[in-house]
Design goal:
The structure is a homodimer of 582-residue chains.
Chain A lengths: L2 H16 L4 E4 L6 H9 L4 E4 L3 H15 L3 E5 L3 H5 L1 H10 L3 E7 L25 E4 L7 H19 L5 E7 L10 H10 L15 H12 L4 E5 L7 H12 L3 E3 L15 E2 L2 H5 L2 H6 L4 E5 L6 H9 L4 E5 L12 E5 L3 H8 L10 H17 L12 H9 L5 E4 L3 H9 L8 E3 L10 H9 L5 E6 H6 L4 H6 L4 E7 L18 H6 L7 H6 L3 E4 L3 H12 L4 E7 L2 H27 L1
Parallel strand pairs in A: 1-2, 1-3, 3-4, 4-6, 5-6, 7-8, 7-10, 8-9, 10-11, 11-12, 13-14, 13-15, 15-16, 16-18, 17-18
GO molecular function (chains A, B): 2-succinyl-5-enolpyruvyl-6-hydroxy-3-cyclohexene-1-carboxylic-acid synthase activity; magnesium ion binding; manganese ion binding; thiamine pyrophosphate binding
Subunit structure (chains A, B): Homodimer.
Pathway (chains A, B): Quinol/quinone metabolism; 1,4-dihydroxy-2-naphthoate biosynthesis; 1,4-dihydroxy-2-naphthoate from chorismate: step 2/7; Quinol/quinone metabolism; menaquinone biosynthesis
Chain lengths: 582, 582
């Protein structure tokens, strides 16, 4: 009864589970039947169906991010595979482990015009860390062991730093329906037991290298620690230890996971974007050394500041073997696991305490924060205020997912340091506005409560993602900042080009999302006041199901209010520095 | 004022227009600003905005299909590009000319973690017929000429057989806003006039090769001409001429464009799928020779028949240099433009007239058609009946777009020969259920009236595509066959696997599309009877705007009724053959 297929698939799936893969996102298809049934029949594998493969892949990405573990993806042959591509690109750049399993026609049905047969070899190009054309199903001892080892290796390669997607392509012949019963699992465990365990070490430096680096830094008073997107449990404690040792303030991107949490916040500077907007002010606050962790932060003023001055010694620490250094000003690349780097470096001396330099940064940060928090008293639906409100409204242990384009910039400006345990995630590998709904919902399947803040174009782009909430009864709150189009362009030079501005850049869609939210059985709210907003958020995060809260805002007003606040920040800091200089 | 950029972009766009590219589908973005403005400012270029790049690319594909001309696509850097991939794959396999223009970060912002920068080199792999990394904008005479030649060449390469997508990647530096005025066009026409004209010849055989082939065929009485997906004006007349010369019936797939039109229909056989389902019957009706044009037809019984008997001489004619021969039974591949092949071959002899063989095929086809048309009297919402109704309801010059999975199979079975001028299109390159709404709407932008028949999963997959109808006031009728899930699996062996059948294969979504149709300002109708269906279709095709007609059908009933009719066809033909054999 189709034994070759059954045992081969069972061995593969069983080993995936052994390797710690407990979630698979599956899209329906015929060719993928063997693996779909294999995963559905395995007791320890949780399967999540999703019709649209593009959304499915982002759903898996969000889940893998939230879980910090590889998640499997499965689809049939043809353009289904190509629909995975945007999420694969994002996973590659944001270092998220995915195990992509694609069914394929067998060799004799390839490149001969057979239906739904496309060339899937290396279809994701460099974006798959590892591509394997799997052998046709066989059940010899050797090939069952092969199936197991490939599953274990897929999980290992996806997990090795830098984490990322791997792609296994399965040629499958008819008949496609395996006969998997309880006995199958026992049989496969007996005949082809799990055989390999994978242990992954960490990249570190030699004692001497750490000592030299410590010596060098110990003579420099003015330093910054800059932390971009980095989500490793324990990093907050490690990097604040580093800050205390050298007396360097930490410029912390919202995705550094340093603005929230139970670690000490004394060293965290969150308003550097607003502070550094004014070039003259930035000149007064320049460091001599920068130690940078994680991806390049969202802040453009920070990038420009680092780019302007070649005399700043910039040390980029990357545990993932990358070259995330768009300023071309780095003087040193250090390939070392980030926590290891922090913990080892502090062992060579004692804490330096709060210097004048550190105090100066704390003062200007406090000043900037006070100004920005004035937005709290704004009655109109100013987009930036959402993050000020959320810092208060979000329950402990929340996951805050932030959309690209404007929301992540507003989070950068307005999501201030707080003592809650809030994880902040975003798709910052390629910064796309695509797949954000699905990524957030994927995260919500393994981490609750989840709140997503997203713009209207990005929400529209992945409306299909909402189906997962309906199919899998997910609990999530989505806040849509609807400024009817591409808000970010009002901040860019394109805004001065009037002729076709609305057609090419503003791109208003005039969509009323209430309809589509209803279709997916979600609760829809339009918040027209901040009181309503607060009420709806509280109601949503404490109740089951999908909740969508829409705020209709104005692109023009929005850019004006941002600029107004940023100007005050610059003015007040300039005054402060002038006084201090006297 | 940014002259280098302005002139370079203007020269490129102007030459695209000169090369016959009159439509560009643009998605909003910052990096793509120069080209977007260049295209928007050119009087002879029609621009179509679409937010979701996946839908945008399918929209361009549909438009290029309907126009039979290359259409340009433009998006910004990052995952936007990756979203084009499914449509690029489809365009490659279905031989549709697309000119894909992607904006990219300049060299110094690549692979260094700069935002929205991904590696776009050869990102579509083999699916782009031609990839070019364009030079940075310069306005020397030489580089303006370069820009012009690249545009002309892109259109040429996309158009050369086999037609397909080409990809030009533009590195662009800030400032990104060109200053294009009426003077710009005059200046660019004066300083860098259009310089190259492209003439494309056709592949043909030598006289001697045609003569030999004619000789060979003239001795064979039992032949089929098999026509799959092929959409060339004039082919119908050419191939029916061939049929008359040799007395071979034409087995015509719905996408062969042979079932409708003003050409002679005497030779067209449209019920071969139902006829050949019974292997014993097929044995009685086997040809000695098959001349095959276009893609492999949809019909599985036809493929199986061709595959079973190696003694059938199968000649595959392909004007596009492909190898569309999944049966492995072809004895001859002929690389020659299809119409040329037909027209030249008939010159060597006179018409053979209607032989016994041809008459036999006409008789069984008539018989099968009569049985299948009994579905016309079906009161319940049987899916197959839709195409019987449409053959009557569709106005002259309609474009009928058919979704994949079940609709194309039902069109194959139930869309009978008629004398209207109806073009039938579908995405049969990779047979995906993705992007079908957008492909149809793209076609509707250049060809009306358009009617799309699509299943619920496929409709859901590309709901985003509906935005184009709203943004661009398109006129289109969409008929959604809503059987709440994947109807095709009920016809496959998976149907016998009960445990997780609905979860993995049936995949009901329980979506009520009325909501989403409203969001896109469409008219929604649910047809619960055939009278209503007829009324709604007539209303829709004669009125402006987007119209969606939903038929809620049953997967189980559907498979039963199909099988019932097919069985009668087999029985009646078996009786007919038995009588005839006496």
């Amino acid at each position: 009864m189709n034994d070759e297929l059954t045992l081969y698939v069972a061995a593969f799936v069983d080993e995936l589970v052994k390797a710690g893969v407990r979630h698979a996102v599956i899209s329906p298809g015929s060719r993928s039947t063997p693996l779909a049934i294999g995963m559905a029949e395995h007791r320890e594998m949780n399967i999540h169906l999703h019709i649209d493969e593009r959304s499915a892949a982002f759903f898996a990405l969000g889940m893998a991010k939230a879980e910090r573990k590889p998640v499997a993806l499965l689809c049939t042959s043809g353009t289904a595979v190509a629909n995975y591509f945007p999420a694969i690109v994002e996973a590659y750049y944001s270092r998220v482990p995915l195990i992509v399993l694609t069914a394929d026609r067998p060799h004799e049905l390839r490149d001969v015009g057979a239906p739904q047969a496309i060339d899937q070899f290396h279809i994701f190009g460099k974006y798959a860390k590892w591509f394997v054309e799997m052998a046709l199903p066989e059940s010899s001892d050797e090939m069952l062991r092969y199936a197991r080892v490939m599953a274990a290796r897929a999980a290992a390669v996806a997990t090795l730093a830098p984490q990322g997607p791997v792609h296994l392509n399965f040629p499958l012949r008819e008949p496609l329906v395996p006969v998997i019963t309880e006995q199958t699992w026992e049989q496969v465990k007996a005949e082809a037991p799990s055989c390999i365990e994978v242990t992954i070490g960490q990249k570190t430096l030699a004692d001497e290298q750490f000592r030299q680096l410590y010596e060098q830094l110990s003579h420099i008073e003015k330093g910054w620690i800059v932390c971009g997107d980095l989500d490793k449990p324990g990093f907050a404690e490690a990097v604040t230890g580093l800050a205390e040792t050298f007396g360097y303030p930490i410029l912390a991107d919202p995705l550094s996971q340093l603005r929230s949490g139970i670690h000490a916040k004394d060293w965290i500077i969150e308003c550097y974007d607003a502070i550094l907007k004014d070039e003259t002010i930035a000149q007064h606050l320049l460091p001599e050394v920068v130690i940078r962790f994680g991806a390049m932060p969202v802040s453009k003023p920070l990038s420009l500041t680092l780019k302007r001055d070649p005399s700043i010694m910039q040390i980029v620490v990357d545990g993932g073997d990358g070259w995330r250094e768009p300023t071309y000003m780095a003087s040193r690349m250090v390939y070392c696991e980030e926590m290891e780097f922090c913990k080892r470096l502090v062992q060579y001396g004692s804490e330096r305490g709060v210097s004048e330099w550190a105090k100066l940064w704390r003062d200007v940060n406090e000043l900037a924060r006070k100004v920005l928090l004035r937005a709290k008293h704004e009655d109109s639906l100013f987009e930036g205020k959402v993050f000020i409100e959320l810092a208060e409204l979000l329950p402990e242990q929340s996951l805050l997912f932030v959309g690209n384009s404007m929301p992540i910039r507003d989070a950068d400006t307005f999501f201030m340091v707080n003592d809650k345990q809030i994880r902040v995630l975003a798709n910052r590998g390629a910064n796309g506005i695509d797949g954000v709904v699905s990524s957030a919902l994927g995260a919500s399947a393994v981490a609750e409560p989840l709140v997503l803040v997203i713009g209207d174009l990005s929400f529209y782009h992945d409306l299909n993602g909402l189906l997962a909430a309906k199919l899998h009864q997910l609990n999530a709150t989505i806040i849509v900042m609807n400024n009817n189009g591409g808000g970010i362009f009002s901040f860019l030079p394109q805004a001065n080009y009037r002729t076709h501005f609305e057609t090419l850049f503003g791109t208003p869609t005039n969509l009323r999302f209430e309809h589509v939210v209803r279709m997916y059985d979600g609760q829809y709210y339009e918040a027209t006041t901040w009181n309503e907003f607060r009420e709806y958020v509280q109601q949503s995060v404490h109740n089951k199901g999908l909740h969508v809260i829409e705020l209709c805002t104005s692109r023009e007003e929005n850019v004006g209010k941002h600029r107004f606040l940023w100007n005050i920040v610059s003015q007040e800091i300039a005054q402060f520095l002038a006084k201090r200089g006297k």
